Amino acid sequence: MSKFEISDYNTIKSVLVNRNLKQALYDKGKVIMDGVLLTLHGDDHRKRKKLEHKIFQRDFFKYYEHELFPRTLNETIKPFLDKGSADLLDFGYRITMNLTADFAGIDRSKKTPEETEDLLSLVKIFSQGATLVHSKRSHEEVNQEVLKALDIFEEKFLLPSKKRREVLIKQYKNNEIREADLPRDVLTILMINEDNIPLNDDLIKREIAFYLQAGSHSTANSMTHALHEIFTWGESNPSELNRLKNDKLFLQTCVHESMRLHPASPVAWRKSQCPVEIENNLILKKDDLVIMDLHKANQDKDIFGTDSDIFNPHRVIPKNQFLWGLTFGIGLHMCFGRDLDGGVVSNENTDPSKHQYGIVTLLVKKILDEKGLPDPKSNPEVDVNTERPNWGSYPIIFGE
Questions:
Q1: Would you state the pLDDT for residue 281?
Q2: Inter-axis angle of helices 248-261 and 359-369, nearest 10
């Protein structure tokens, strides 16, 4: 097996859309990622995606953003506002975990801070397992922690959620309730399984755990990176700060610019399933590995300009490109949560009052509206347990 490392933007695009190349980044994280949608390939991936895509329609994201999100946001941020301070990672994990649990299909019957803390601690362990390839900890130790966490998750959260849905699904099949009365979430779709895809209890457990960690981990980090870029940029551009608070479309552009600079996964891996020839003379044999540097590709000067390595929300890019670059991927494995996290790209005809901004933009706006600023007495710290360039903590204070 040969290994190729590439960072050219257009070559990476060609790799990502090639159906003969299989997702390989999460091979080391099989303890939680084995058989989940993100790691499937070919016909298996197509069937699972078709089944689960019944949830991820654009009307659902709009419903999620406009109906579910505001209530959960206000409930989650209140204790931090009362305290006058927060850690952005902690706050981000808490709100996105609750929102992700809603569409994944995990009930929280008690609705207590303790219950939230219990689920959050498990989800953080799931994230360590999923991103094991970049972990600096003992891989065996992490795997054992994930297995233990999966058992606890199943007993405390998954089984009660499944039992409630079993009753509702039975009522639906007996024509006692309408389809609209069923929970609109991934777990319900998997349990009904109208497409008769082979699914067992362990696979469903990993799939739901994957959704929980993917949604909360990436969104919390994207929010923190975006606020850090805005805080830093605002120091040099104080006249722009009022526009940030009053122009949500411009704020969304700032978030997209940050997403370009800080992709949730800085690399993507693919393994060839047969001999493949990619543009720029990239010739692969079966089982060759391609490691794509998304972080570097997203700073391609030919596409994003000579200042592509810095945060510039006034950046002008070609019409056929997204400001966030390759952060959400393209092709078969494009991130399902792209519209949920990033929203819909605006244009000259966009009505700001009806626009879908994305969860990250709305989180950033809430922090800015509450006059959130970096804590002058406590510096942010990087996450030392992973090779990914993420923050480990980011203390902020609220007020003037």
A1: 78
A2: 110
Angle in degrees, CA 51, 53, 55, rounded to 5: 105
Which residue matches tokens 């890019």?
Answer: 317
Quickly tell me which residue has 């922090």 as its tokens.
Answer: 367
**Has residue 222 got a pLDDT over 80?**
yes
Determine the Cα–Cα distance for residues 325 and 145; give it in Å rounded to an integer. Answer: 35
Alpha carbon of 358 to those of 9, 75, 101, 383: distances in Å?
A: 25, 19, 17, 25
Task: List the domain boundaries for the chain.
Answer: 3-376
Instruction: Report d(CA 260, CA 356) in Å as an integer.
Output: 19
Pairing of strands 289-293, 282-284: unpaired
Write the pLDDT tens digit of every residue in 186-203: 999 999 987 788 899 999
Query: 57 is written with which tokens?
Result: 């329609």
Residue 168 and residue 265: Cα distance in Å, rounded?
Answer: 38
SS3 197: coil
For the domain made up of 3-376, give the CATH fold: Cytochrome p450 (1.10.630)
**Residue with the two structure tokens 């799939």:** 207
What distance lies between CA 268 and its chain's CA centroid? 15
Residue 209 structure tokens: 């755990």
Task: Report the alpha-carbon distance of residue 231 to residue 18 in Å, rounded.
Answer: 39
